[in-house]
Amino acid sequence: MTESEQHTPVADRLSPLHDEHVALGASLTSFGGWQMPLRYTSDLAEHRAVREAAGLFDLSHMGEIEVSGPQAAAALDRALVGNLSAVAVGRARYTMICAEDGSVLDDLVVYRLAEETFLVVANAGNAPLVTQELVRRCAGLEATVTDQAAETALIAVQGPRAEEIVTSLVAAEDVQVVKGLKYYASLTAQVAGIDALVARTGYTGEDGFELFVPAERARELWRAVLAAGEPLGLVPAGLSARDSLRLEAGMPLYGHELDTTTTPYEAGLGRVVKLDKVDAEGNPLEFVGRAALASRKGAQPARVLVGLRGLGKRPARAGYAVVIPGKDPDVQIGFVTSGAPSPTLGYPIAMAYVTPEFSAEGTELAVDVRGREEPVVIVPMPFYRRPQAS
């Protein structure tokens, strides 16, 4: 490879819905190796639409990886920190793929589509690594790993009217089945006449559905959902609104709250690590990262992920230092991983890693916002919970 070839930028991949975004006037941005819509109109309008009615998201940048075969469940048990063999057909589980040292390579949602078939959904920028690791970790077992991202589109409908919109597009005999779909469950159905895997999952804190469809049918489905949803207040929403929504819901983002310097325990997600997994003979199962994670369980982590409520008006942003109010500003006790004004709550919110002695709820701290201390207080997460139906 020549020096010029080494420095030639690689073009971002385009979603199957790229032309739809351009036609709608979206501002596009590079994200995880893809050109994706940042916003269509305004971040605030799109955020509020999801909280009050519904938003339509293109998530086709996510990675879809099928793991299938007689030993698919056993292979995933060895590859991931969760107990995937215990997942029932039609259900899904949030889990992680970790390195040998227990650090997080990616957080995942895994759907069990059939007894011997699983769909692993990875973050866009990590999907090639996850695919590569799954191939390596499944070697020697009767399990086949297939990257399905190129032929799959993923569209999400999120918000309090999501169910009404999606069920308006399914056959009459499927309406009650889709309505009865549980959280973190999936089924196959035709949506607007298109075969789809319909999953009741999401990343906004609202009810909603994610629709996996063949890439060549994505534009047809996108337009059908827009037409059905617009009279109910649905709008297309971009990555910026998705980020503020997931922050209010206290959901981690890889590259911010999770990365290769972080274990699930530091992120407050130790519950996804199943150290008690056993193999078919009932022996302890040595999954990748188990030894390192077992040594950390119960030990005090060097840092703890907490929620911060801003007591002033200036928001903390990712990378800002967390300090003790009135003390030496060069003595940092943590750092902000994600932060923004909360459109729903009306005050700044943030997630941050801090040392354990300063992690108690109600602790008053400060964030160094461009040389000035902004007061914050530690609060429980999520910051926002959707109202429960009466």
From TrEMBL:
Entry function: The glycine cleavage system catalyzes the degradation of glycine.
Matching InterPro entries: GcvT, GcvT/YgfZ/DmdA, GcvT/YgfZ_C, GcvT_bac, GcvT_C, GCVT_N, TrmE/GcvT-like
Transferase recorded as keyword: yes
Aminomethyltransferase C-terminal domain ranges (all copies): 303-384
Family: Belongs to the GcvT family.
Gene name of the record: gcvT_2
Keyword terms: Aminotransferase, Transferase
Residue ranges annotated for the GCVT N-terminal domain, each copy included: 17-277
Subunit field text: The glycine cleavage system is composed of four proteins: P, T, L and H.
Protein known as: Aminomethyltransferase
One Pfam short name: GCV_T
Keyword Manganese on entry: no
Molecular-function annotations in GO: aminomethyltransferase activity
E.C. numbers: 2.1.2.10
Catalytic activity: N(6)-[(R)-S(8)-aminomethyldihydrolipoyl]-L-lysyl-[protein] + (6S)-5,6,7,8-tetrahydrofolate = N(6)-[(R)-dihydrolipoyl]-L-lysyl-[protein] + (6R)-5,10-methylene-5,6,7,8-tetrahydrofolate + NH4(+)
